[in-house]
Amino acid sequence: MHELLDSTLLMLSGKFGQRITVVKEYDHTLPRVPAYPAELNQVWTNLIDNAVAAMQAGDGKGTLTVRTARENDRLLVEFGDTGTGIPPEVRDRVFDPFFTTKPVGEGTGLGLDISWRIVVNKHHGTLRFDSEPGDTRFQVLLPLTAPAPDDTSEESA
Ligand SMILES: Nc1ncnc2c1ncn2[C@@H]1O[C@H](COP(=O)(O)OP(=O)(O)OP(=O)(O)O)[C@@H](O)[C@H]1O
Ligand SMILES: [Mg+2]
C-alpha cells in the first residue's frame, strides 16, 4: 500500500508546486492487503486532486497529509488537506455523479462517484469524510482480508 501511495504521490508531484507540503504518516507495521492497485491509484489520484484544488481555492498554500493506520480489521488510508472545506449544504451531494462546485470545464464531478464505486463496490470498503474549513479528511477503509469466496456480490472479481 505504501509503495502504491508513494508512486501516486510521485506521479502527482508536479501538481504540488512550492506551496503545498506533503506529509506522510505511514504505519509501517501494516500487513499487505488484497487490492486492485490500478483502481486504487485512480482513487488516490481523485482524492489528492480534490485536496490540492481545495487548497488552491484558498490562499494557495497548504499541507496534504497522507496517513495509514489499522482500524480494527481494516486498513485506513486518509488524505487530509488544509483547504476550504466542504460547506454543510453540499455535504450530502459530493458523491453524486456530476456534482461539482468547480467552474464549467474544470471538473466533471465524477471523481468521487468513480472513487466510491472502486472502494465500496470493488473492494468492499468504506469511503467517508470529515470536513471543516482548514481541515478536511477523506478516509478509505479497506478490509485486511479478501472477501469470502462465497461472496455473492456481482462486483467481486
Ligand atoms: N478535499 C475537498 N475539499 C473541499 N471540497 C471537496 C473536496 N473533495 C471534494 N470536494 C467537493 O466535492 C465536489 C465533487 O468532487 P468530485 O471529485 O466528485 O468532482 P470534481 O473534483 O468537482 O470534478 P472531477 O473530479 O470530475 O474533476 C467538488 O467539486 C468539491 O466541491
Ligand atoms: Mg475531483
TrEMBL record:
Q: What is its EC number?
A: 2.7.13.3
One Pfam match: HATPase_c
Q: Which SMART domains match?
A: HATPase_c (SM00387)
GO molecular function, a single term: protein histidine kinase activity
Where on the tree of life does the source sit, at the highest rank?
Answer: Bacteria
Task: Read off the PROSITE patterns from this record.
Answer: HIS_KIN
Q: Which GO terms describe its biological process?
A: phosphorelay signal transduction system
Which reactions appear under catalytic activity for this entry? Answer: ATP + protein L-histidine = ADP + protein N-phospho-L-histidine
Q: Which UniProt keywords apply?
A: Kinase, Transferase, Two-component regulatory system
- Looking at its record, which EC class is this enzyme? transferase
Sequence ranges assigned to domain Histidine kinase in this UniProt record:
1-146
- The protein depicted here goes by the name histidine kinase
Q: Which organism is it from?
A: Streptomyces haneummycinicus
